[in-house]
């Protein structure tokens, strides 16, 4: 065994020696490669060290250039922001100035429009074309603001000139409706708020606004000569109305009943028709109810005594002599006096029921009139307001006179409706109470008759 082990060991010794030689060679090769690598690394480090300085300088230069560019960018950004802010501010200022210009234009437009409403009727013809042309210019979208303002300034200048002329008096030609109803040419004398007119035919007086749209002349008694003299010679005296024409204007609004009725429109006539019917019926029913005589005192007692005495024929004659529906009821009761009490009461009740429609007839027509007249007035009011709104749609709210027709129709129909309804309601209440009083009297008489006749059987 030992010899075998020795032999095996001896067989491995050459292999170990050979491996040792190979390892030494490999170590030598690795060391050589390491030395070469270290040499290359050294050379590379020397090369990097040589190139690092210029690259650092170039980097610093580029960083400095970046900083300069950043500063320039920030400066440019601030300049742009400032310009943007300036532009926004300018736009706001421009918008404010435009709003101010528009406001001034609207104020001047309102002033020019007021010239027409404030001008005397006699002088409107002098300024109407100018006002219409200026307002047309304002509404023209193709014109520039400066052109609109220029036209408005010219109109305002004429308006100021009008005020100056009013202070010192103004004389100009025109047309007016004279008291005879004719439209004549002549001269207007305008002094402050008062206007006078003198025609070529000699008619003169105070000039007021007429319903036709033309100035209307109202004669001033005893002053026609002075007005005509002033109009012809531009010198003289003028009569002055301290109310500025209001007293004359109020007097000129006085109207007859027929004119007042006609202003109410078509719905006034049905109301007046109901009023006439209600009045006639009220008078007729008043006469009818007042002519119904009361039963004479003691008539029932006398008839009852005759019935109790068995004198039925005399009782019938006595009952027949009693006037009115109470006599008829007493006559029917006398004829049926022999009937049982319950049946006699029914007979008298039937007579009262048949009499009641005759007493209360036509009263319902008065009640209908009292209820219908205000409704017709309300209908006229609605119609008048509809007409008024139509005029407002067409002409606006500037001219109150153009709206007076619809307003008059609205108010007058309501007025007449109430005038008819209130008396009708009173008449109906009075006549109804009178009719109920008659029926109550008949009921009391019937009860007295029944109790008197049937008391003999108790």
Tell me what you see in this structure.
By secondary structure, the chain is an alpha+beta fold. It has two domains: 132 residues, no CATH class; 190 residues, no CATH class. The chain contains 13 helices and five strands. Strands 1-2-3-4-5 form a five-stranded antiparallel β-sheet. Strand 1 and strand 2 form a beta hairpin. Helix 7 packs parallel to helix 13 and helix 8 runs antiparallel to helix 9. The longest helix has 117 residues. The chain starts with a helix and ends in a 5-residue tail after the last helix. The relative contact order is 0.06.
Overall form: elongated
| Count of alpha/pi helices | 13
* Radius of gyration (Å): 60 Å
In the predicted model, the low-confidence regions spanning at least 5 consecutive residues are: none
Strand content: 5-15%
| Oligomeric category | single chain
- The portion of residues assigned to helices is over 70%
Structural class: alpha+beta
Mean pLDDT: 75
Q: Which strands sit side by side, in order, in the main sheet?
A: 1-2-3-4-5
- In total, the number of domains comes to 2
Task: Please give the alpha-carbon distance between the first and last residues.
Answer: 180 Å
Name the helix and strand elements from N-terminus to C-terminus, one letter apiece: HHHEEEEEHHHHHHHHHH
| Number of E-state strands | 5
* Largest sheet: number of strands, sense, barrel closure: 5 strands, antiparallel
């Amino acid at each position: 065994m030992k010899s075998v082990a020795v032999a095996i060991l001896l067989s491995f010794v050459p292999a170990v020696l050979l491996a040792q030689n190979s390892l030494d060679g490999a170590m030598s090769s690795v060391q050589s490669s390491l030395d070469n690598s270290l040499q290359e690394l050294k050379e590379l480090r020397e090369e990097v060290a040589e190139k690092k300085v210029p690259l650092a300088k170039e980097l610093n230069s580029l960083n400095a250039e970046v900083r300069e560019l950043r500063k320039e960018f920030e400066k440019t950004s601030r300049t742009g922001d400032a310009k943007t802010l300036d532009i926004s501010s300018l736009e706001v200022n421009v918008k404010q100035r435009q709003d101010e210009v528009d406001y001034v234009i609207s104020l001047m437009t309102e002033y020019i429009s007021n010239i027409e409403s404030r001008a005397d009727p006699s002088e409107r013809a002098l300024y109407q074309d100018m006002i219409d042309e200026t307002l047309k210019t304002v509404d023209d979208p193709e014109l520039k603001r400066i052109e609109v303002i220029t036209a408005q300034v010219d109109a305002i200048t004429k308006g100021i000139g009008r005020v100056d002329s009013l202070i010192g008096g103004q004389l100009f030609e025109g047309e007016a409706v004279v008291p005879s109803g004719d439209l004549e040419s002549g001269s207007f004398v305008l002094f402050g708020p008062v206007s006078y007119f003198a025609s070529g035919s000699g008619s003169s007086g105070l000039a007021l606004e007429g319903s036709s749209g033309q100035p209307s002349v109202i004669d001033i008694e005893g002053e026609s000569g002075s007005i005509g003299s002033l109009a012809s010679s531009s010198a003289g005296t003028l009569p002055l109305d301290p109310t500025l024409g209001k007293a004359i204007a109020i007097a000129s609004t006085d109207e007859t009943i027929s004119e007042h009725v006609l202003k109410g429109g078509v719905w006034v006539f049905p109301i007046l028709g109901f009023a006439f019917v209600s009045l006639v019926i009220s008078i007729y029913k008043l006469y009818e109810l007042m002519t119904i005589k009361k039963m004479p005192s003691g008539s029932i007692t006398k008839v009852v005594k005759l019935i109790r005495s068995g004198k039925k024929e005399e009782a019938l004659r006595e009952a027949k002599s009693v006037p009115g529906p109470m006599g008829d009821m007493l006559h029917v009761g006398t004829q049926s006096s022999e009937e049982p009490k319950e049946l006699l009461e029914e007979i008298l009740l039937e007579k009262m029921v048949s009499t009641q429609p005759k007493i209360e007839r036509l009263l319902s027509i008065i009640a209908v009139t009292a209820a219908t007249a205000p409704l017709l007035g309300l209908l006229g009011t609605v119609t008048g307001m509809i007409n008024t709104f139509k005029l407002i749609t067409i002409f606006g709210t500037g001219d109150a006179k153009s709206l007076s027709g619809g307003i008059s129709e609205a108010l007058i129909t309501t007025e007449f409706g109430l005038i008819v309804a209130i008396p009708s309601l009173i008449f109906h209440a009075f006549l109804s109470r009178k009719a109920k009083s008659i029926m109550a009297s008949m009921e009391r008489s019937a009860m007295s008759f029944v109790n008197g006749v049937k008391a003999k059987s108790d």
